[in-house]
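Morning - nicotinamide-adenine-dinucleotide inputs below, output right after.
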Amino acid sequence: MKNTNPESASDSKVTSIGHFVNGMNLSVPGDTQDVYNPANGKVLRTVAMGNKETIRMAIDAAEKAFPSWRELPPSKRSRVMFRFKSLLEENSERLARMISEEHGKVLDDAMGEVQRGIENVEYACGSPELLKGQYSKNAGPAIDSWVEFQPLGVVAGITPFNFPAMVPMWMFPIALACGNTFILKPSERDPSAPMLLAELLTEAGLPDGVFNVVNGGKEAVDALLCDSRVEAVSFVGSTPIAEYVYKLGTSNGKRVQALGGAKNHAVVMPDADIDTAANALMGAAFGSAGERCMAISVVVAVGAETADCLVSGLKDRLANIRVGSGCAENVDMGPLVTREHRDKVADYVDRGVQEGAALVVDGRGLEVEGHESGFFLGACLFDHVSSGMDIYRDEIFGPVLCVIRVDNLQDAMELIDGHEYGNGTCIFTRDGEVARYFTDHIKVGMVGVNVALPVPVASHSFGGWKRSLFGDLAAYGPDGVRFYTRRKTITQRWPSSVGRESIRFAFPSND
Ligand code: NAD
């Protein structure tokens, strides 16, 4: 499969990205796919599309590396993570530029992504503490009992395009620090940053084969899900694929956590500071061109006056939003990741108009001077959206914000609870009782109070409810440690005069 693009850069300039297996770059003949600069629509490079054989090579390498990596004291594994963290800091701008060039997000947003990734590495540096286990002395006469956290073996991560550095770092730092070996299958749309992460890990002293990257798409994913040597799979991406990965992976006996899509609602109460809410919603809805799983895509305005003030405040702010290449200075919003995705989002805007919503700000005609072939779409704002509309129900994943008007908090909460997704939500209010009721009862995994993007810090865990997460454990933080380890409980007695065994047929207890 090879994408064609009339605006491709001259072939002599197009380089190819392969895979990273057993501590080195691996290039094997096979299918490739084009990687674009979404700001100008040109092909930057191509990426190899790994197959069953590439995955087999990566699993062989990871399987071979596991026994000695597992045996290392956690403190030594942690030292590799410390060096990796320093290298990430030294290379953070380089990483951010790579992300911005292939994804399209603006540079300070890409820097934020890298920083959030680094925070997960910092958490993993604490693995000697995290893996201490639990101990009970004298669980019985002269009997001691303890729980160990043991690594699983070869584990895999499959990641989306929208955070090509951070989401992999939700997974592999903790998995590696816990003693596992790892295969990353990143998004084929922006593969450069994950390859740099692999190089930096090697520079940090990670032994060959402990971390591997296989680029590709469905074929590579299916090969990972069907190989019995892969013990666990972490997935982040859209809900239909998350569900597929969860079902296929678990039916093959693997531990799977699969994080899916979202439609995140922000409730704005009549007592809220509307200016603060409008400012926060601008970043939460249009930052990264809405291509964030925690992006706010629906505002639920309680009361007509709240809605009128908010819509007018957002409209004013949108008149000043600066759209351009993510790598340029003084830009608020970059392009969408691919032409197909831009067209899909624009189709949703058309559909919203047909469905009868009021398009208050229309970004469809936007052209960015000097970037006429870029995958740009201006910010769009819909008012008077209703719950039966496709623009409300579906995850659009673009710079489109819908305003729904309701009469009271109860209606707002019923609306949110009735949606198939339950990733993030937030409420803007000055009333502590309302905020407490909302956080206590809303059926959503991550909740903000006057915080529009309540993305948990690295020492907590990230995960939605309902069809935003398949599996029992969320990503990173304490759930990450539990996901990438298996508990073993050992009960031990050493012969002594106190605990000498006599024959007993009754069930052992401290009777
Ligand atoms: P995607 O589901 O298209 O792709 C995710 C991964 O799955 C990629 O590595 C891709 O190569 C692979 N894949 C794609 N199609 C496949 C198939 N048919 N079979 C097997 N594997 C396949 O998602 P995306 O477009 O890269 O990312 C955007 C989506 O990710 C959005 O829905 C967003 O909400 C979601 N997301 C969720 C979270 C979260 O934490 N819940 C975080 C980031 C992104």
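Note: Residues 1-12 have pLDDT under 50 and may be disordered.

O.
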